[in-house]
């Protein structure tokens, strides 16, 4: 019972922070305010981090993405990008920018490529969600939708449990979409899980029309990001995601959204790490 009370108190406190971050704002009208939250934990190799950065640049500057922007009610979106890893690492790559034509998109892509990625220890998806929520609050735009686009190649293993951060963000009116990277290659591959796409579905994403697009091979990455951006800009979902989910009773096992934390503790105890 004490644990339940403590859990509820933690969630209510976290929700209060998110609600405080989401008052009505007046500013330039855009169809969507979109935060690109990009995982740079050391479970990815330097080569994969470079592929990821180039993939985002190619997707953002794609004529198909620009066309989707131009078809919006206002014909413009606001977007920014930051890289994240542990609970204390969130580094801005591109500041808030309004994109409404091809030149704007190329400018955003050039800023992505102008920077350099440095891998960091640990994976705090919850920290990334909290940081993205604060960025959306601070952005001086009036947006019909506010979306966090989060990518990552492993489960949360540091900071607040990811479900608490997700639920608080959704309660404050945000949508969280996921791009789980089902890849291997970095030195921290032992922290990955085989069903990361299901983890993202059950533990990370949330809000109206939220969805997951898995990446099973790095060759798929630029196209996956391009497709994801087009869907987010248009407020759509992939055709394979049903718009109406029938009510049903299931007695299946609940998903363990603390799997990442448990893997970390097991590795820490096995190798006598300090933290």
Layout of strands and helices, then pairs:
Blueprint: H1 2-20, E1 28-39, H2 46-60, H3 63-70, E2 77-84, E3 90-99, H4 102-114, H5 125-138, E4 141-152, H6 162-171, E5 175-180, H7 196-204, H8 221-234, H9 259-271
Parallel strand pairs: 1-2, 1-4, 4-5
Antiparallel strand pairs: 2-3
The first-to-last residue Cα distance is 29 Å
Main sheet attributes: strand count, strand direction, barrel closure: 5 strands, mixed
Q: What is the global morphology?
A: globular
Helix run count:
9
Q: How many strand units?
A: 5
The SS-based structural class is alpha/beta
Low-confidence stretches: 1-7, 19-25, 244-248
Strand order of the largest sheet: 3-2-1-4-5
Helix content: 40-55%
The Rg value, from CA coordinates, equals: 18 Å
What is the mean predicted local confidence, pLDDT? Answer: 86
Strand content: 15-25%
Q: Please trace the helix and strand order, writing H or E for each element.
A: HEHHEEHHEHEHHH
Please explain how this structure is put together.
The protein is of the alpha/beta class and 275 residues long. 42% of the residues lie in helices and 17% in strands. The protein is built from nine helices and five strands; from the N terminus they run H-E-H-H-E-E-H-H-E-H-E-H-H-H. The chain has helices at 2-20, 46-60, 63-70, 102-114, 125-138, 162-171, 196-204, 221-234, 259-271, and strands spanning 28-39, 77-84, 90-99, 141-152, 175-180. The chain has a five-stranded mixed sheet, with helices on both faces. Helix 2 crosses helix 8 (221-234). The radius of gyration is 18 Å and the shape is globular. Mean pLDDT is 86; it is low at 1-7, 19-25 and 244-248.
């Amino acid at each position: 019972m004490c644990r339940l009370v403590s859990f509820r108190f933690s969630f209510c406190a976290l929700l209060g922070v998110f609600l405080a971050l989401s008052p009505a704002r007046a500013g330039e009208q855009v169809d969507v305010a979109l935060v690109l939250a990009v995982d740079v934990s050391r479970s990815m190799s330097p080569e994969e981090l470079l592929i990821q950065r180039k993939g985002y640049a190619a997707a953002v500057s794609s004529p198909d993405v620009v066309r989707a922007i131009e078809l919006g009610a206002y014909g413009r979106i606001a977007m920014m990008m930051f890289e994240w890893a542990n609970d204390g690492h969130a580094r801005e790559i591109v500041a808030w920018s309004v994109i409404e034509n091809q030149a704007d998109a190329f400018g955003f892509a050039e800023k992505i490529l102008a920077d350099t990625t440095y891998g960091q220890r640990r994976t705090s998806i919850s920290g990334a969600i909290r940081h993205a929520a604060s960025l959306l609050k601070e952005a001086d735009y009036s947006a019909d939708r506010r979306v966090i686009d989060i990518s990552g190649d492993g489960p949360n293993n540091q900071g607040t449990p990811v479900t608490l951060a997700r639920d608080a963000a959704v309660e404050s009116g945000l949508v969280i979409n996921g791009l789980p990277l089902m890849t291997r290659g970095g030195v921290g591959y032992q922290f990955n899980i085989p069903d990361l796409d299901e983890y993202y579905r059950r533990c990370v994403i949330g809000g109206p029309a939220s969805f997951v697009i898995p990446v099973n091979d790095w060759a798929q990455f630029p196209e996956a990001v391009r497709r994801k951006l087009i869907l987010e800009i248009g407020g759509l979902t992939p055709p394979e995601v049903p718009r109406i989910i029938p009510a049903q009773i299931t007695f299946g096992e609940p998903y363990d959204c603390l799997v990442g934390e448990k893997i970390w503790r097991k590795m820490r105890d096995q190798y006598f790490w300090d933290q």
